[in-house]
Amino acid sequence: MDSGDKASKYKGQGSSLLLVLVNALCFSLLQAEPIRVLVTGAAGQIAYSLLYSIAKGDVFGKDQPIILVLLDIPPMLPVLDGVVMELQDCALPLLREVIPTDKVEVGFKDLDAAILVGSMPRKEGMERKDLLKANVAIFKTQGAALDKYAKKTVKVLVVGNPANTNCLIASKSAPSIPKENFSCLTRLDHNRASSQVAMRCGVSSDKVKNVIIWGNHSSTQYPDVHHAKVNVHGSEMAAYDAIKDDAWLRGDFISTVQLRGAAVIKARKLSSAMSAAKAICDHMRDIWFGTKEGEFISMGVYAGGNSYGIPEDLIYSFPVQIKNKTWKVVDGLSINDFSRAKMDATAAELVEERDTALDFLSQ
């Protein structure tokens, strides 16, 4: 082999090496930066059902690395250590780090998303005002921590009950974060309503769209199917036409959805966990990736500027559509007298909750 052939050989190897290096650099640049996701009440049963789905990419995307921050109270830290071990043992490629903590300055630092599951549960003999007072203290602290430590773009989902009012307190305690970044979970109620309609029609739940949960995540909520559609044998029709039982839709259907949480507790001796975790995933995935064209879902959001006559300084569940991580209340839906009365009743409960909570907040 002469010197020219040797030069040609090494030149070819150099080009191949350069190509490999360029490809490696491009691949590293394409790798998304990890996002920081906080779950509070992380040693509890809802979180136990939730964390795996987040860590394996079901919520924020199959190519989105995650740093999971797990916050709970000091007595729960030993349990949290077990949760961390299990997450490690799942060997999930997207899960870059798990940070267990009981300190807000660690838990709320540089967050992209916060899922506030932990709250004071109602105990036997506890009046509602006592429950509100305990939770005002919790969500005032967490709102202030969001304000001080989290990114201003953080998306905050409040799950812990009373979810609507807890969400309002957290938002008021974080004045530098837009109110629109806060929402509370009524997707579980939405999913319950969709499932009841689907079972009644003998179709799968993905054949039902545009049910609405109005108002509070409580027994006063109003599950509304006046605008819902059901796909039966390839033909889309109004839910009322598909079901053909107005008495059921205005009676047992509503009470079944309103009281479903209590029914689960009576049967399981524990509150909803698997279904709540699924609803949290649905809610956050829709915030991140948007709702389907022509469809809306239910979320508790700030009522400012709504077109439905709902008092503005509330977190109230509306039908919303989401695009570019921004929700918009679906306007212009016709509201009959039956619906109006239900919507106003749940709003009245929220006003009473808000006023009680704000009294505690000012103390």
Task: Characterise the protein shown here.
With about 375 residues, this protein is α/β, with parallel strands linked by helices. The protein folds into 2 domains: about 35-185, NAD(P)-binding Rossmann-like Domain (Rossmann fold), CATH 3.40.50.720; about 185-360, Lactate dehydrogenase/glycoside hydrolase, family 4, C-terminal (L-2-Hydroxyisocaproate Dehydrogenase, Chain A, domain 2). It is built from 13 helices and 14 strands. It has helices at about 5-30, 45-55, 75-90, 105, 130-150, 165-170, 185-200, 240-245, 245-250, 250-260, 260-270, 275-290, 335-360, and strands at about 35-40, 65-70, 95-100, 115, 155-160, 180-185, 210, 210-215, 220-225, 230, 235-240, 295-300, 315-325, 325-330. The strands form 4 sheets. Strands 3-2-1-4-5-6 form a 6-stranded parallel beta sheet. Residues about 25-30 have low confidence and may be disordered. It catalyses: (S)-malate + NAD(+) = oxaloacetate + NADH + H(+); (S)-2-hydroxyglutarate + NAD(+) = 2-oxoglutarate + NADH + H(+). It is an enzyme of class 1 (oxidoreductase). This is Malate dehydrogenase. It comes from Echeneis naucrates.
